[in-house]
């Protein structure tokens, strides 16, 4: 007697219990209920499409600094519209599968042999039968509304990808302009040459970031301030004048060995301030691009392809450091078209 027979308490193998009687769904027996369910699912897909469009509307019309119940209104809008749309699509597909697609029990005999040509033909037939059971051909309203919802899903993707960062092409101008003071980052204190010793490095920015309008409001604030800082931030260094090798036309861009360079690495835009006093090299912590500040910000090592943009300096009537103009180069990571664009800007200048 086998172990199976002993455990079951029978002399014969356990009989096949068979399948329980099939329970038909309301949609299988009531065409009106089926059409009602179809309309409900289609409505979910269409509402999802509207929410995707709403995502784009939030992106365009809701300010990044606006709040809602103490939260970021823009983030709340993004989450509500995108999350709600994906949720509705998921619920609609589940309801479609559970209530409208084919509901027949299928028995498949197991086999260990490799699939034969007949089996492959049978599989294709089963796939076609599954497509027929899904009702794709018989439920055009659901198919079309799902197509509208999935098509609308591309709209948020376009806006999100565009928000990965402003394109560098043509974005030459920063806050710097002729006569603007160079001030210490965070404190806003203007800088005099006597404040710096040989070997010093100071993180600095334009004085405009600390200025206010006639009503006492900051000229720059919130997201606008962060965006402006990402292009206008500079480092001010002092080295011995005899160690500096200025390029032609840049002989007067410094003050007694004091030079200013963009703080934005020309590789992928990381902020840099790792200063080697003896070699006059500035090292980017992200990918180790190294720039020689005594030689016009020239790249001496690493993946960066362009020198650091240099800010020409002068002194105002009170002896403080000021910029004589904006950066002559584009302040941005290196993109394939950037060298061409820079050449055009140089020609225009």
Count the domains: 2
Q: What coarse outline follows from CA principal-axis ratios? A: elongated
Quote the beta fraction.
5-15%
CATH superfamily of the largest domain, please?
A: Rieske [2Fe-2S] iron-sulphur domain
Average pLDDT level: 84
In angstroms, what is the radius of gyration?
34 Å
Quick synopsis:
The protein is of the alpha+beta class. It has helices at about 5-10, 25-30, 30-60, 75-100, 115-135, 140-150, 155-160, 220-230, 340-349, and strands spanning about 65-70, 70, 180-185, 200-205, 235-240, 260, 275, 280-285, 290, 300, 310, 315, 320-325.
Please give a handful of descriptors for the protein shown.
5-stranded antiparallel β-sheet, alpha+beta, 4-stranded antiparallel β-sheet, 2 domains, 349 residues, 13 strands, 13% strand, elongated
Task: Set out the fold topology.
Layout lengths: L2 H6 L17 H4 L1 H31 L5 E2 L2 E2 H27 L17 H18 L5 H13 L1 H9 L19 E3 L16 E6 L15 H11 L1 E5 L19 E5 L11 E3 L4 E3 L6 E3 L5 E4 L8 E2 L1 E3 L5 E3 L14 H11 L1
Antiparallel strand pairs: 1-2, 3-4, 4-5, 5-6, 6-11, 7-8, 8-9, 9-10, 12-13
Helix pairs in contact: 3-4, 3-6, 3-7
């Amino acid at each position: 007697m086998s172990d199976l027979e002993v455990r079951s308490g029978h002399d014969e193998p356990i009989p096949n219990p068979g399948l329980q009687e099939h329970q038909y769904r309301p949609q299988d027996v009531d065409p009106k209920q089926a059409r009602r369910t179809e309309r409900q699912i289609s409505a979910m897909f269409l509402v999802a499409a509207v929410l995707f469009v709403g995502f784009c509307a939030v992106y365009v019309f809701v300010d990044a600094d606006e709040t809602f119940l103490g939260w970021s209104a823009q983030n709340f809008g993004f989450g509500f519209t995108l999350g709600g749309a994906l949720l509705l699509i998921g619920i609609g597909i589940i309801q479609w599968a559970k209530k409208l697609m084919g509901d027949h029990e299928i028995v498949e005999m197991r086999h260990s042999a490799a699939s034969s040509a007949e089996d492959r033909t049978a599989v294709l037939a089963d796939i076609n039968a599954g497509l027929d059971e899904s009702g794709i051909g018989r439920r055009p309203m659901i198919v079309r509304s799902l197509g509208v919802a999935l098509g609308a899903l591309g709209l948020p993707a376009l806006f999100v990808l565009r928000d990965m960062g402003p394109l560098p092409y043509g974005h030459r101008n920063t806050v710097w302009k002729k006569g603007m003071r160079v001030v210490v980052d965070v404190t806003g204190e203007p800088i005099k040459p006597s404040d710096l010793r040989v070997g010093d490095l100071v993180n600095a920015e334009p004085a405009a970031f600390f200025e206010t309008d006639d009503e006492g409001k900051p000229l720059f604030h919130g997201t606008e301030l962060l965006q402006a800082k990402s292009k206008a931030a500079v480092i001010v260094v002092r080295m011995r004048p005899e160690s500096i090798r200025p390029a032609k036309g840049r002989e007067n861009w410094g003050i007694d060995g004091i030079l200013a360079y963009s703080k934005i690495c020309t590789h992928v835009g990381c902020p840099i301030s790792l200063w080697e006093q003896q070699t006059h090299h500035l090292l980017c912590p992200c990918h180790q691009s190294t720039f020689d500040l005594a030689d016009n910000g020239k790249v001496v090592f690493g993946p960066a392809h362009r020198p650091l943009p240099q800010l020409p300096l002068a002194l105002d009537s009170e002896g403080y450091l000021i910029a004589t103009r904006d950066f002559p180069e584009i302040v941005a990571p290196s993109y394939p078209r950037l060298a061409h664009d820079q050449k055009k800007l140089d020609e225009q200048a």
